[in-house]
Amino acid sequence: MHISDSKLSQVVDRFEQIEARMGATTDSDEIVQLGKDYAELKPVVEGVRKLQDVRSEMEELELMLDDPEMGPIAKPELQTLKESLPDIEHNVALLLLPKDRDDNASIVLEIRAGTGGDEAAIFAGDLFRMYSRYASLQGWKVEIENYSEADMGGYKEIIASVSGAGVFGMMKFESGVHRVQRVPVTETQGRIHTSAATVAVLPEPEDIDINFSMNDVRVDTMRASGAGGQHVNKTDSAVRMTHEPSGIVVVCDAKSQHQNRANAERILKMRLYDAERERLDAERSGERKAQLGSGDRSERIRTYNYPQGRVTDHRIGLTLYNLDKIVAGDALNEVIDALIAEDQADRLAQMAESL
Predict the structure, then answer these.
(1) Could you give the number of structural domains in the chain?
(2) Pairing status of strand 248-252 against strand 238-243
(3) HSE (side-chain half, CA atoms, 13 Å) at 169
(4) Per-residue model confidence as pLDDT tens digits over 167-204
(5) What is the pTM of this model?
(6) Same domain, 85 and 136
(7) Contact predicate 340/348, CB 8 Å
(8) Per-residue exposure over 186-224, b if at least 16 CB sit within 10 Å of its own CB, e if not
(9) Domain boundary among 96, 115, 146
(10) CA contacts within 13 A on the Cβ side of 28
(11) Residues 6 or more apart from 16 whose CB is under 8 A from it?
(12) CB neighbour list of residue 292: distance below 8 Å, 6 or more residues apart
């Protein structure tokens, strides 16, 4: 992909303007924003300057080709640069892709058992352990906010916060319906069942820009419903918040009512923010061929087939035959990296059309 020199110069000029402004302003809020812009643009500008240097060097070498003495030296050097140029331009194009404003955000991960009864709840538990292991490998922190255990194991529902650098950018394509095909532990005749669980990934941006007021929220307290212990069913520590205009309900039932209130309000805001993201994605859906991040919670996105040991992501037609490692979380990166690459390729194609 050829990126015009004028486009590259615009990026460098913008970066230099930010640098100059950082040294001139005394406004604390502006300094914070400029710092964020600087950090985001710095790797982009480093790539752009590398591309500019290569193009400039190629021009100089081309001028030397007709020189009897320098030509034989310049020709192989020029050929080497020509061979490396496409990869450099591709990397710069990736850096220039518009960023999702929430990619660096932490998330709330919600997993709910779907069709399949006890087996669906067991599968929901498997998914949570898969994501917990993957998060651990990335150096992220996982904290359970609320859960409802099933009688045969697993969860009817589990909600957890996952915090760290770039969590949403890595996890955002996991939202949707996950389907499992296997012989459940509850099956006595060895028959393969199909069950499902839904996954929702909600970003937690630093500044949630939504029309939110606690005047629209009904707050109820209740007794915790955990697995047992001295605090369970003895104090009204659990908090339920209901956003009456939207009907969205959040429950947090850790030991501290104060912490539950804070967490419930935070998650409620995130769900409202996610609903707005989903609405905007739906409006834009006709503009994109690949709807990887459409936010459609009803879309079947992946199948885990245990008898054949395979995992298939239906959105990109990816099939891998290392199910055990993927479900364990150790090889989930193979799926997530493929989804990110497909999304980048789709957006690069759109960028090429506009250049």
Answers:
(1) 2
(2) antiparallel
(3) 14
(4) 999 999 999 999 999 998 877 788 899 999 999 998 88
(5) 0.75
(6) no
(7) no
(8) eeeeeeebebbbbbbbbbbbeeeeeebeeeebeeeeeeb
(9) 96
(10) 0
(11) none
(12) 173, 315, 316, 339, 342, 343, 346
